[in-house]
Amino acid sequence: MNGYDVVIVGAGPAGMACASEACSAGLSTLVLDEQPRPGGQIFRDIEVSDRKRRALLGKDYGEGARIAGAFRASGAEYVPGAVVWNIDSAKRIDYSAGGRSHSVEAKSLVVATGAIERPTPMPGWTLPGVTTVGAVQILFKTSGIVFEDVVLVGSGPLLWLAATQLIAAGSPPKAIVETVPKARYREAARHFGKALPAWRYLAKGFAMMRAVKKAGVPVHRDATDIAIEGETVAAAVTFAAGGRRQRIETAHVALHQGVVPNQQITRLLNCQHRFDESQRAFLPVVDESFETSVPGVFVAGDGAGIGGAKSAEMRGRLVAMRIAEKAGRPAGEAAKLRAEIAKDAAVRPLLEALYAPSADILSPADTTMVCRCEEITAGQIREAVALGAPGPNQVKSFLRAGMGPCQGRMCGLAVSEIIAAAKGETPSTTDYYRIRPPLKPLLLSELAGLGAEEPREAAE
Amino acid sequence: MTNRTADLVVIGGGIHGCSAALQAAMRGLEVVVIEKDTVARHASGVNAGGVRRLGRAYAEVPISQRSMEIWHRIEELVDDDCGFQRAPQIKVAETDADLRDLKDRAAHLRAMGFEHEVVLDRDELRAHLPAVSEHCVGGLASLEDGFALPYQTTFAFQRKARSLGVRFAENCRAQQVERIGSDFRVTTERGVFTGRKLLNCGGAWAGEIARQLGEPVEVEPTAPMMLVTSRMPRFCSAVVGNQSRPLSFKQMQNGTVVIGGGRRGRALPDTNVSELIFSELRQTAETAMAIFPIMRQATIVRSWAGIEGRMPDGIPVISPSSTEEGAYHAFGFSSHGFQLGPGVGEIMGELVATGATNAPIAPFAITRFTPGP
Predict the structure, then answer these.
(1) Is B235 an 8 Å CB contact of chain A?
(2) Closest CA in chain B for residue A95
(3) Which ipTM score applies to this complex?
(4) What is the pTM of this model?
(5) What is the CA radius of gyration of chain B?
(6) For residue range A93-114, what is the model confidence (pLDDT) as tens digits?
(7) What's the CA gap between A360 and A365, in Å, rounded?
């Protein structure tokens, strides 16, 4: 089995920057990533996007080209199309690539699997025609496909970014239905002064809102009781706003309630996690160099707490410096980088206060489906709690919630929130699903071939 | 939780602890169950769910039979169907030598007076398992067995016991067990519990309790691994094992296939962690595909392993204590205790309440591990 000083899972900004820095410190480095090309979700397909698409996606997207270029030049080994399906406590990594499974061993493991969109259970969210704002962006980045007349529903910076990108591409959204309550603006304003060092983010935010207004896209603010109507496919979005019930006909709805750390790998490795009230999500517990409670396992990027692409890149470098330092290699100056990371994060308290998930999706109605794989409703989860099921793992065993192919990625946070509310606890005490391998579905035949001798290269 | 003296303190909230607590309560005893985690946290909540008499050690057959009778009316006992499905259990023979061994076993059981295991020839095997591989030559079946949902079952036993007044102290590890006068005192991280009788159903953690009672036995923690596939078209309605390779195979009502059968992962009982070892599980995958070629198209969506206790001879301890009168043991079920839960609970309830049972439990005495003079 091959061994490396550093194995990095994920080739987004954190993974790419970590690999570049690790290589320059002389560490043997392997990057495993599911996508065919580096970039992660934020810089998806950055290497192959043409000038026109880059212009539409904005200046920040173009930043990815610099990071990807440095990564390609770094000398790090890179396996695209690699689906990591298990990591054990000895940091042995099993992944699937090219139709067969391979194993490697890491002295240090860097989890750079970033963020996933928060689950947004609401009536009708499983209808065909309903997707997430992140998925809308991915389609555009990889294929140049834009949805016609999409209604964007929810809250968060990504909602506004997607809106401006759609406007620039000539297909403005039909409407934005924003769930931010009016009172939130006052709460968020308290953080405004502290956010000023990261004024560029604020300026970008205001610019996006102006662009939406200029394009004449209707914005419905403080929307509640949102439902997507339709018999077999989405037909309309209905909601209460401005003191009355409203209805917008559309075949395409994109939902968003912010992004949260992807905990699958850190949960699998039994790293300690904590519930962060401000981000309203579970975060792995990390030290100042982003090392988890499991020695030698680091989390770079949004997986350690949402910080955005710029922070992700810097955190990736910081992690590599720490690994180099521990290995007795010359490492860069970490103090300056830490200061820059702190400055970049100054905008976060404001964003987290303003764009906290809406009350509706944290406590969906009894009839709303929460686990999509196994078709389990919020009401069933509450009933299981009433019977005495103490937490998410018992609810999972009892109802099969979180047992489907997505391994709870789509419902996990929602299930923890619902159980916590039903028991009068916080998600911090309720905790989360235990995550079991394979992290992604795996063919039985591929498992049967595990460890078989690899075919020799013909021209050796 | 009040500190009054209970009639019985049960250590361990798995299927055996909950079942015995229920039976004792049905006999009018006041019972407390002490569980270090939550009820059904380990093997009782996450086993493969087989309700199997087929292929048991000969000594276990009578108690397995008694348990099976309860399984067939489980809803009357616990007000919940436990997801129990009646289904044939079939052990497949891949070779003529395997089939000969199975025939010998059936003959031995008949001589003992048990008729539930029947030999299947080539055609009969296919009548029960149309998807079985061409090379399989026959099998041994117990047609009135089945499978159930482990967590739902253990949870149902807990709820029924609770409705009869049994108190459950969860997240409450028993640290010290001692005899004080005629009572037993159990010191936990959440206070002291006293009882006139004591029952050790501690599973993989039971060895420490036995040691404190002065009768040390070796309980090996093990983690039998299981995997489950995504939904597949219906092709199998029996629970399938294999005579010469470890396998436990069943298709659930929803089409998913659960595969287990004894390949073991890494069990770390001190931290409650069980880790899958895929290089071992690989063989389980191979066996499943060899018996059912349709499994070549199967996709694994999850795997898991619960921690349980295994005795050196592979059969459990079901026994009064040899050192302390009023103390009892039911542990070390060695990866096949789920089916026995209802029956052994009844036996333990009887033993605790009356001091005797007519069940043939002599082969499971804890004294079998006492070093000879």
Answers:
(1) no
(2) B278
(3) 0.92
(4) 0.94
(5) 21
(6) 999 999 999 999 999 999 999 9
(7) 8
